[in-house]
Amino acid sequence: MNPSLIFFCFLVYTLILFLVTWITARRATNRAFFIGNKNSPWYVVAYGMIGASLSGVTFMSVPGWVGTTQFSYMMVVVGYLFGYFVIATVLMPLYYKLNLTSIYTYLEARFGFWSYKTGSFFFLLSRTIGASFRMFLVVNVLQVFVFDAWHIPFAITVLIFIILILLYTFKGGIKTIIWTDTVQTTFMIAALVLSIILIIRQMGTDFSSVFNAVLDGPYSKMVFTDWNDKRFILKQLLSGAFIAIVMTGLDQEMMQKNLSCRSLKDAQKNMFSFSISLVFANFLFLFLGAILFIFAAHEKIALPLRSDDLFPIIAIKYLSPLAGIIFLIGLISAAYPSADGALTSLTTSFSIDFLGMNKKNNITERQKQKIRYFVHCSFAIVLLIVIIIFRAINDRAVIDKLFTIAGYTYGPLLGLYSFGLFTRFEVRDKFVPWIAITSPVICYFLSDSSEYLFNGYKFGFELLIVNGMITFAGLLIFRKPKNPVSLMSHQG
To answer: What region, left, alpha or beta, does residue 55 occupy, with left being phi > 0 and alpha being psi -120 to 50 degrees?
Structure first.
């Protein structure tokens, strides 16, 4: 494909987003930026969250991942359903009852100052790394297929992408993102379906034949029963449940969208409908992955060293120009929700959790707005730096690395919230940061030595659960010895 054509598609899509931004961000206030004035229709949030949850990682990394993990990822996705049920029935009622803007303010009420700052810090760390991973995928494709041909450095490509995101989230925040996510979800799902259709046509066969070939082939295996295997079914189910809880229910970005709904009942409708839709969407991505490998074998295409590159290489180099355009639109539409939501949630969390903007009654709304603008731009610069660093060290499927990092950074949040919700003890607040730092360190050494220590056992994504349990145990050890408090007294 011609680099100019690729860039033109990118530009047109971006202009559509700016049009939506212009419509939704007029007369936006700080409250609209943070929680959308609590007026977002639940069905719009649910639909848009599909794109935000899938992201560019799913669009590129999941299809390529099929080559080494087959369809075992579906067991993780099934586990998501259990996690989303917990979010809808346990966490959402708590957040709505406390009328939270930042979900980490719960930790201050439950445990104290240092617990609150620790929870927020681990979110900032997790979301910064996770968003950078997701954005890297898209920017790298644009670099390889467009900007390398024009001899533009990777850092400039990243800068252009982040400036565009910065501009359309600068004023409207979550109010804008709720609506741009719906546009992006539509384009991404359409691109997924059309890509499958075009590949099948290119192979000169029909859907029924390809579907049977996938089911009968080596790629469709979902269930692995060797407990030492990272793909062991119980590991996948449990990991999926807890990944959903921490990366959605304990994540400011995802919860910020849910908290913008008009009521708890609406937010729960959103969560249940979104979770079911996500199962079908992920299955389609795995199905696409199997088709890509079948197509590569059919056309005798050498598999790339990085599995993430399989989809773009086939779409842009071996299919029609139309297929390449559809792929790029789908990829861009999958990438924008990851970046815009992350930037908005990072701004929200830092402004409220560290700068205490919601508690500052001695400054005007205009002054608060200026502070928010500065924080927003600062996090854009941080993301720029992390993406450039990540490109230098990336060596395996991004989704694999994303979930691995999540196991380390979200584990302390899992332990903190579990201890707060399911015990009635208070903790020695000043020890909480040390517990939260020590737990991932212990998990790293356990993971690194697991085969030696546990007779060949390899940790997969269940390391997240272990991390949360170690944090929970640390909080239990350093709990206050007397006067356990009623949980409801902290929620009232």
So the answer is: left
